[in-house]
């Protein structure tokens, strides 16, 4: 599935469907195994979709776009379960698109220049991103975001997402144990390094940056 067809879905829908992976489940091997990807997408991501649908069933929220619902209910203690499941649906779809087979390397042109200007160069960005990803205590996410027009590296706990903090997500890595435990056991730093070096989809990041600038 194309990211644009997920993120720009504005028409009313009765329920969410699990978005298809943008590549085959074996496509990220050997860095992420088909076994990990099939559990992560087919079981974990699917469970968030199922829970979201159950929690919105027969409510006015069922007909609203996912992103709108997430923003609308963020911080509402009475809807924390719905927020967690909805945000996890969004975060995971965004994560799948943040990677591609034969990814990694370095971003080109405009994105590279912005990383130089805002984050002190690509190597410093990678080091800062790895620090964010490995120091997130427990479950969560590491992110590259656009914050008030500038790039920033950040991290969120559990299902939390930059979408509800006035930031525009550009790239993410899932650092919940279910993302890497089958392949890397407790070695989260090795998983994060493998994603950055071999799977990161800088074209997707550049597209997100271009789209954010046009908003
Ligand atoms: Fe996950």
What does this molecule look like?
With 215 residues, the chain is mainly alpha-helical. It has a domain at 109-213: Iron/manganese superoxide dismutase, C-terminal domain (minor pseudopilin epsh fold, 3-Layer(bab) Sandwich), CATH 3.55.40. The protein contains nine helices and three strands. It has a three-stranded antiparallel beta sheet with strand order 2-1-3, with helices on both faces. Helix 3 (66-73) crosses helix 4 (80-97). The longest helix has 23 residues, at 34-56. Bound molecules: fe (ii) ion. Fe (ii) ion binds at residues 40, 44, 92, 174, 176, 178-179.
Say how many strands there are.
Answer: 3
By DSSP (H or I, 4+ residues per run), the number of helices equals 9
Overall 3D form: globular
Strand order of the largest sheet: 2-1-3
**Ends apart, CA distance between termini:** 23 Å
Here the CATH topology of the domain at 109-213 equals: minor pseudopilin epsh fold
Name of the CATH first level of the domain at 109-213: Alpha Beta
Q: Name the helicity range.
A: 40-55%
Average the pLDDT over all residues and give the rounded result.
95
- Binned strand content: 5-15%
Q: Which sequence of SSEs, written as H and E, runs from N to C?
A: HHHHHHEEEHHH
The secondary-structure class comes to mainly alpha
Uncertain spans, ≥5 residues at pLDDT below 50? none
Annotated CATH architecture of the domain at 109-213: 3-Layer(bab) Sandwich
Q: CATH homologous superfamily name of the domain at 109-213?
A: Iron/manganese superoxide dismutase, C-terminal domain
Main sheet, how many strands, which sense, barrel? 3 strands, antiparallel
- The gyration radius over C-alpha positions equals 17 Å
The ligands bound in this entry are: fe (ii) ion
């Amino acid at each position: 599935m194309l990211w644009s067809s997920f993120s720009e879905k504005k028409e009313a829908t009765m329920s969410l469907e699990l978005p298809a992976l943008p590549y085959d489940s074996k496509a990220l091997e050997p860095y992420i195994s088909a076994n990990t990807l099939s559990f992560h997408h087919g079981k974990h991501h699917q469970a968030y979709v199922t829970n979201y649908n159950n929690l919105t069933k027969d409510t006015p929220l069922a007909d609203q776009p996912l992103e709108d619902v997430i923003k609308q209910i963020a911080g509402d203690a009475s809807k924390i379960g719905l927020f967690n499941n909805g945000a996890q649906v969004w975060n995971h779809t965004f994560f799948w698109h943040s990677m591609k087979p034969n990814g990694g390397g370095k971003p080109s042109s405009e994105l590279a220049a912005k990383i130089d200007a805002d984050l002190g160069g690509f190597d410093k960005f990678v080091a800062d991103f790895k620090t964010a990803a490995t120091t997130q205590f427990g479950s969560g996410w590491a992110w590259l975001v656009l914050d008030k027009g500038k790039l920033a590296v950040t991290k969120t706990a559990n299902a939390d997402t930059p979408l509800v903090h006035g930031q525009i997500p550009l790239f993410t890595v899932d650092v919940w144990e279910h993302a890497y435990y089958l392949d890397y056991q407790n070695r989260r730093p090795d998983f994060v390094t493998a994603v950055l070096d071999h799977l990161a989809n800088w074209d997707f990041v550049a597209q997100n940056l271009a789209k954010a600038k046009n908003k």
